[in-house]
Structure formats: structure tokens, C-alpha cells
Design a protein that fits this description.
With about 675 residues, this protein is of the alpha+beta class. Helices cover about 40% and strands about 15% of the residues. Helix 11 packs antiparallel against helix 12 and helix 15 runs antiparallel to helix 16. The longest helix has 16 residues. It is globular and about 80 Å long.
């Protein structure tokens, strides 16, 4: 938050600050490739009719290494903060003497005094053998001294001690590249990518490792994966993909990838090289298979200076958030009930639309009723919960509920049922940034307690995401609450906040599931809402959740030691994120109240209903269609938690019009 969290950021303890100095490796240009210069498919000639042209290899490792170094250089500050996630809970427990030796070692490492750094870091490990960051830093020192076997050994120890830190796996991969063990390097960096599935630097490194290990199709697939995201800083993957196509003798695709690289990074120093390659490339009638290239790679670390660590510009962050809130506010959320043609929702009647009918609620015992919504044309399912003065209401009937789609009563109600036993798919998204350091231990215990109460059916599954400046999938889908609790216990705070990136990732992950029956897709976000690192916007996160039919509940952890702070933009963002997706926001009065608020969330989640219907006057035009849902019981107006709308399918996607569900 504004005043309190700004003060927190200025009080980063030395252990966490030192953990930033992971010294991201950059590949130098001391590489050579032995290739047959006579093979036309692996050469680029200056012109077709120039007899004096000298064959030049288009993708020699020197160029590839330098391309990776140059194009990623401007991301050092971002990587510095991303590395802040790589804080192990063991590091927070290190004795003071070990921290003292470690801090000296890291300072020497940053000064490129690698021999002296080794002495202090080894002493830190002697004092505390479980000091994960010390093993990692010692590996960095060894790697810079070309003691590659020892470097790999230290990085291996760091990941064996704590296996949820993606950047430590990445460092292990660099050491294996230095040892020319390309296959192992690919596996290590693949592990880093599985933990940080939306981190573009990790994915770029994976593409590079796959290329070096001759896993060309995998390199191309990873480049395409990156291309689907915002990837202005990772356009180099197209350069690597071009090299992969060239190695497979496909010069047409080589040129296509190079052109994509030029289009995305026209100012890159390598854009001119790519243009030259395109100009010089000729596609022969017959392309013999190219020779298998051999690589000799030298790897070094470029240490980041301690004085390079800077805080975020809080005023710029606030301005960006205000703009994003305005952008979300411009979207239609509900029908203006005072506007012409709009009516106050009342008891559902069949005559609301000429020719409309009321279908009786489907029989819960019917074999097909649970999944009928996926086989009926233009049927819209809406999950909702209802509370009366904070208490869940579990005995609603269809007569208690009114619904309007784009201001009109549905043509047909096809299903209404209590779905409290519906299988739950839960994504837990926990903020591990530095701004929540003081309360983090209590938050962990509260989250673990909440999880045990939520995963009550053997069909329920959950996954865990922790985030700072990078999004980490700590535990994938599992029905075992103990496994998720173990992941929660692994988390340690420190770094920036990529909240919207984390939310979008969780919503997309839930939406990507292939289910044989309807499930409740829920994301629980525990955060202070102070996003300062996302490439995704608040609106994009909300849009993703709406498209995937994901309900988001948010629990704010904004400085709970300052409960009387006025409403901040971050509070509005947390509320908007929840309410636009059919969830609710909870603001604990104190850290002790967090358990109670999480119990409220659990109660709301576990008292759900499903109403599905065919909308009246429906058009497959891609428009946003607002939903208004209300309920009364025993004369009381109930509070409803439901999504506020959905996007209609578009003519360009006819499969949606044939069997429509708004998450398509």
C-alpha cells in the first residue's frame, strides 16, 4: 500500500536484498560451429549471380549467443526483481553469522572478485549447510572461474534443498550448458519453465537450450508459445526458431521467422543481420540435409551491482492503476434500469419474450442434466451464491430468483439447481512480494486452514500459484490438501508484484481443463493488490476470467497494521476484480481477522447454485452481454455473487454458435 508498503520496501533485509543478486548468466560470443561450408542449405550467399560471394553461415553460435545477450540486456532490472522470488524459507532461517559471511561473499561477487567470494560463501555454507542462496551464489562464483563441474554441483544442491525456485533451475541449466551437456541443460531449464510458465526470459532461455541440444521442433514450439503472449522483450525467440528451421533445411520457414523477428524488433541490432540473411537467402530446388553442427560454448556471469537495486516509482504505479480502473469502468457491467426499454427484474414469466417457454428445472438425478449446458445451442450457465446478512442461503428455488440477460428475461430457463456438491477446481494465488513480509507467516497458516475446509470431496482439485515479479506454479492440480499445504509452506516473501499476470494465468489454467462434467472454477487471490510488475492489465485479467467462466474471490492483505487507511486504488482494483467475475472482496480488519474472512469465502464457495438459460434476442456478434441476477427469500433481499456478463460468440467461430458456452 501507499505509505506503509513504501516504508516496507525501504526496509528490505540484507538476506532478501542479497538474494536479488542471482547474477543472471549471459552467453558470450566465444563460440564456434563446425559445419560443412559446401552445403547450400546451411549457407547464405550474397547474391545468386555473384561468383565471388563467400559462403557465410547464417546462424553461427557466436551470433546466437550475442543475440541472446543483447536482446535480453535491457531486461536486467526486471530480471533482478523476478529473481527476488527466488527466496527460500531456509534462507530466512539462516544464522546471523552465516548471513554475515554470505553478504560479504555476494558483495565480492558483484565486484567480480570471484576467488575471494568463494572463500566467504563456502564459510557461510559451513555455518549453515541449508543456506540455499549461498549455494546458488557459490555456483555463480565457480561458473565465472570456469570451474563448471563445481558450479553445477552447487546449483544442484540449491534445487535439491528447495525445488520450487525457477531461477535456481535456470542457473543449473547455464552450468550444464557450460559443460556442453545440452540435453541436461534443456531438462533443467524445462523444469524452470514449468515452475515459471509465463516468464518470457525463462522461455527464451528454454528455446535457446532446445536449439543447442538439437531439439529443433521443441524450440519452434516454445517460440510459438512465447509468440502467443505479449513478448516485446522476447522477440529473439523468432531468431532462434529461424535457426531451428534452417537446421532442418526449411529455408522458407527460416525466412518467415526472421521476418517476424524484424517486424517485432525492428530496432534490434540483429534486425539488420536478419534483413541481410533474408536478402541473401535463395531457396534451392533441392536442399540436401545440412550437417549436424557442433557447438563450443563459453558462459560467464555479468554480476549486477548492489546499487542497481531500485524501488518502483509508486506515483507511476498509482497512475497506471487509475488508468486501468478507468478502462475497466468503461465496460458495460449492468443494464441501466432507468433507460428506455429496461425493466426492473421481477418474477420470471414466460411471456417476457414472444413465443418463449419455461422449461422445468432439470432433474438432478438425470444422467445428462449436469452437462446439458454444453449441448444446447446458445445456453448460458451462471453459477451464483446468495447470502442473507452474511449467512449463506442454501434453500433457494427458481421462484426466488430473477434474471435478465441484456435487459430481457430469458427465452427459456433450462436448469436450476443447488450445486453445493459440484466438483471444485480451485486456483490459490498468493502474493509473496516484499510488501506483505510482516504478516506472511500468519497468512500461510490461514491459507492452509482455508484449503482443508474447501477440498472436502474426492473430486475436488486445487493448484497453487505464488507470485512476486514472476508467476510461479508451485503445485499443479491435486486433490491432496497436504500437497498444497506443503507448497504454501515453501513460499517466502520478497520482490515486486505481478498480480494481474498471476490472475490471468490462473484463469487460463482453469479454463484449459477438459472436464467430463460441470465444475465450479474458482480463483482465490490473497494480496494487497499493489501490482507493479505485470504485463497483463486489470481489464485483461478480468476478461480472461469472464471468458473462462472463472469466479474470483479476493482477500486483501493491505497493511493490516493500518486498518483505518482510507480507500485506495488498490482496494478498488481488488473489489473490481472480484465483483466483475461474480466473486466477492474481503477486507480483514486485522491480521487476526484474516481467518474469519477466509471462512466467509469458503462458506460462499460451498453454497452455490447453477441457473442456465437461453437468452432472448440473442445475436452471435461478439458483444458483451450484461447479466442481472437477483433473489429474495422470506421477504429479504439477498446478496448475490455472480458474474456480471459474458461475451457472445462471433461469426468467425461457428463452433460457438452450434454449441455455445461463454467460456469458449
Amino acid at each position: 500500500m501507499l505509505c506503509p508498503s513504501d516504508r516496507k520496501r525501504s526496509r528490505i533485509n540484507s538476506t532478501l536484498q542479497a538474494a536479488l543478486l542471482l547474477l543472471v548468466p549471459l552467453l558470450y560470443a566465444n563460440s564456434q560451429m563446425a559445419a560443412n561450408s559446401q552445403m547450400a542449405s546451411s549457407q547464405i550467399r550474397r547474391s545468386e549471380d555473384s561468383s565471388s560471394a563467400t559462403p557465410v553461415n547464417a546462424f553461427e553460435p557466436e551470433r546466437l549467443n550475442t543475440a541472446f545477450q543483447v536482446t535480453q540486456g535491457d531486461r536486467q532490472r526486471c530480471l533482478l526483481e523476478s529473481s527476488f522470488f527466488s527466496v527460500s524459507k531456509f534462507d530466512l532461517e539462516a544464522p546471523r553469522a552465516a548471513r554475515h559471511e554470505y553478504d560479504k561473499g555476494v558483495q565480492l561477487l558483484a565486484q567480480a572478485n570471484f576467488d575471494r567470494a568463494v572463500e566467504f560463501l563456502k564459510h557461510a555454507i559451513f555455518i549453515d549447510p541449508k543456506y540455499v542462496a549461498a549455494h546458488n551464489a557459490l555456483g555463480a562464483a565457480y561458473l565465472n572461474l570456469n570451474r563448471n563441474d563445481e558450479a553445477e554441483n552447487e546449483f544442484s544442491k540449491s534445487v535439491s534443498l528447495d525445488n520450487h525456485l525457477p531461477y535456481f533451475y535456470l542457473n543449473l541449466g547455464w552450468a550444464q550448458l557450460a559443460r556442453k551437456d545440452f540435453s541436461s541443460a534443456e531438462q533443467s531449464i524445462q523444469r524452470a519453465a514449468s515452475l515459471a510458465p509465463v516468464d518470457l526470459y525463462v522461455l527464451s532461455a528454454l528455446t535457446y537450450a532446445q536449439l543447442l541440444s538439437h531439439d529443433y521442433q521443441a524450440a519452434i514450439a516454445t517460440a510459438r508459445r512465447v509468440h502467443k503472449s505479449k513478448h516485446e522483450a522476447a522477440a529473439v525467440v523468432h531468431y532462434f526458431a529461424a535457426a531451428a528451421w534452417q537446421a532442418q533445411n526449411n529455408l522458407l520457414e527460416t525466412r518467415n521467422e526472421l521476418q517476424t523477428f524484424i517486424n517485432e524488433a525492428p530496432q534490434s541490432p540483429f534486425a539488420d543481420i536478419a534483413r541481410q540473411i533474408i536478402d541473401q537467402t535463395k531457396i534451392p530446388q533441392r536442399d540436401p540435409s545440412p550437417p549436424r553442427a557442433t557447438y563450443s560454448t563459453t558462459i560467464t556471469y555479468r554480476p549486477v551491482r548492489p546499487d542497481a537495486i531500485t524501488g518502483n516509482d509508486s506515483s507511476a504505479t498509482r497512475k497506471t492503476l487509475q488508468q486501468q480502473l478507468s478502462e475497466v469502468g468503461s465496460e458495460p457491467e449492468s443494464v441501466c434500469e432507468s433507460c428506455p426499454g429496461a425493466t426492473e427484474p421481477g418474477p420470471y414469466v414466460a411471456t417476457a419474450t414472444p413465443g418463449s417457454t419455461v422449461a422445468p428445472p432439470s432433474d438432478p438425478s438425470s444422467d445428462n442434466s449436469e452437462y446439458a449446458l454444453h449441448s444446447i445451442v446458445n445456453e448460458v450457465p451462471v453459477f451464483f451464491s446468495a447470502t442473507d446478512h452474511g449467512k449463506s442461503v442454501s434453500d433457494l428455488t427458481l421462484q426466488d430468483v430473477t434474471i435478465r440477460d441484456a435487459g430481457k428475461a430469458p427465452e427459456t430457463i433450462t436448469n436450476f439447481r443447488n450445486e453445493h456438491q459440484l466438483p471444485l477446481r480451485l486456483g490459490m494465488v498468493i502474493d509473496t512480494s516484499n510488501s506483505i513480509t510482516n504478516e506472511f507467516g500468519f497468512e500461510q497458516k490461514a491459507a492452509e486452514s482455508f484449503l482443508k475446509k474447501c477440498l472436502t470431496d474426492n473430486r475436488d482439485q486445487a493448484f497453487l500459484v505464488g507470485f512476486t515479479s514472476t508467476v510461479v506454479l508451485v503445485k499443479d492440480f491435486t486433490g491432496e490438501s497436504a500437497v498444497i499445504s506443503q507448497g504454501i509452506d515453501q513460499l517466502a516473501p520478497g520482490g515486486g508484484t505481478a498480480l494481474w499476470d498471476a490472475v490471468k494465468f490462473a484463469a487460463d489454467k482453469l479454463g484449459g481443463l477438459a472436464e467430463e462434467e460441470p465444475v465450479a472454477k474458482v480463483v482465490l487471490v490473497i494480496s494487497d493488490g499493489d501490482d507493479n510488475s505485470s504485463s497483463t492489465t486489470l481489464k485483461e485479467a478480468i476478461d480472461s476470467a469472464e471468458h473462462q467462466q472463472v469466479t474470483i474471490f479476493t482477500v486483501s492483505t493491505r497493511d493490516l497494521s493500518w486498518p483505518n487507511l482510507p480507500v485506495q486504488p488498490t482496494d478498488r482494483a481488488m473489489r473490481t476484480l472480484a465483483e466483475r467475475t461474480g466473486g466477492a472482496v474481503f477486507f480483514p480488519d486485522s491480521i487476526g481477522d484474516l481467518n474469519h474472512r477466509l471462512s466467509d469465502v469458503q462458506q460462499v464457495i460451498r453454497s452455490r447454485y447453477l441457473i442456465s438459460y437461453k437468452p432472448a434476442e440473442f445475436h452471435a456478434d461478439g458483444a458483451y452481454r450484461p447479466i442481472t441476477l437477483r433473489a429474495r427469500k422470506s421477504g429479504h433481499k439477498l446478496r448475490i455473487y455472480s458474474r456480471r456478463g459474458y461475451y457472445a460468440p462471433t461469426p468467425s467461430r461457428p463452433e460457438q454458435a452450434q454449441s455455445y458456452s461463454p467460456n469458449e
